[in-house]
Specification:
By secondary structure, the chain is mostly helical. 68% of the residues lie in helices and 4% in strands. The radius of gyration is 22 Å and the shape is globular. Keywords: Membrane, Transmembrane, Transmembrane helix.
């Protein structure tokens, strides 16, 4: 029995497999409590209840930060300095968590549009978001594993990430707002062409059986608009992952810190949606703070991995001082918190902020 479990001690991207499995089991427990106990019946999730759920998930995320600081054993391979590894890890974890939470906030706009497009009743929206998050956990694991393999093999890829983040931040400021036209989405077009789809939502079901439209007399499987909404939520998460995964790897190269900060931010997304869906327009200036964070993180990569590390490798002396992780955390807090506060103050008294 002992030998059969020896694989648990093997490492995967710097951490033992048992730690990865324990984390996934813990997340599974939280999801079971959420859907199986707290929200086990269809119904409208109130803003007050959502605020309590979001506060609970945030508290758990903070508690996990304490684990990172006091218990976690960082792999020095993923850190530029061998000193104070746990301090570096916890600062990077909270920076990543705040950044991913802010990026997830952007999803609220698009998710609301998807629910409106498919006319998803509020009492079924929680179910769609729950399964959407389940998919996001899987997809983020795939993206982060690929990202870790690429970054560790080719460190220069970080400079591509830096350029992409600077470009994305610049585009968010000056590129204007472009709404997604779901009718033209290729994934939705494909599904409508290949699947039987009901005209209306059938309770909380993603699939139902109905008579074959070809007249065979058999019952065949039909997807409902609720399933299409779920697929589009997953598509949106994949699109946003293109921004968020490079952003978090720009903060830390430690795959465990990358994944855990991502997942805790995603867990809070569902509660955040129901808590802020009605007031989301009040945060219209958030994108400017977030865009500046992306630009600064891109610049930080060039600074630390180019000017600092590159010059040090050639001469033995650094051209510029090393930017410690706490400066990323302070900048992220200041820019995101400041843009949210400014938005709330600026739109105060507006009935329908643009």
């Amino acid at each position: 029995m002992h030998e059969s479990l020896s694989f648990l001690a093997a490492t995967y991207v710097g951490q033992p497999i048992w730690l990865w499995l324990a984390f996934l089991a813990f997340i599974g427990l939280l999801l079971w409590i959420d859907l199986g106990v707290v929200n086990n019946k269809d119904g409208v999730v109130s803003a007050k209840k959502s605020a309590g759920m979001w506060a609970s998930f945030s508290a758990i995320a903070v508690a996990f930060g304490a684990y990172v600081y006091f218990v976690y054993e960082p792999d020095p391979l993923y850190y530029m300095s061998p000193d104070n590894l746990n301090q570096q890890a916890v600062l990077q974890y909270f920076t990543g968590y705040l950044l991913e939470t802010a990026l997830a906030f952007d999803n609220i706009f698009v998710i609301g549009m998807i629910f409106t497009f498919f006319a998803v009743p509020r009492e079924y929206q929680h179910r769609v978001l729950f399964w959407g998050i389940m998919g996001a956990i899987v997809f983020r694991a795939i993206f982060i594993s690929l990202g870790a393999a690429i970054v560790n093999e080719f460190t220069w890829v970080l400079f591509i990430f830096a350029a992409f983040l600077i470009y994305t931040g610049w585009k968010m400021i000056f590129g204007g707002d472009h709404e997604m036209d779901l009718n033209k989405n290729p994934v939705l077009k494909f599904l409508r062409k290949r699947m039987n789809i009901t005209d209306t939502i059938e309770n909380h079901n993603f699939f139902v059986k109905k008579p074959d439209p070809k007249g065979s007399g058999r019952l065949v499987l039909f997807a409902t608009p609720l399933f299409l909404a779920l697929v589009m939520v997953e598509v949106v998460d994949v699109i946003f992952a293109v921004d968020s995964v490079p952003a978090i790897f720009a903060v830390t190269k430690d795959p465990f810190i990358v994944y855990t900060s991502n997942i805790f931010a995603i867990l809070g997304l569902r509660s955040m949606y129901f808590m802020l869906a009605e007031a989301v327009a009040r945060f219209k200036y958030l994108k400017y703070g977030l865009s500046m964070v992306l630009v600064l993180i891109g610049v930080k990569i060039i600074w630390n991995f180019g000017l600092y590390k590159g010059w040090k490798d050639m001469t033995g002396e650094a051209l510029v001082p090393y930017l410690e992780p706490q400066w990323s955390l302070i900048a992220t807090l200041g820019l995101i918190g400041g843009s949210m506060a400014y938005s709330w103050i600026k739109t105060r008294g507006e009935q329908n902020p643009a």
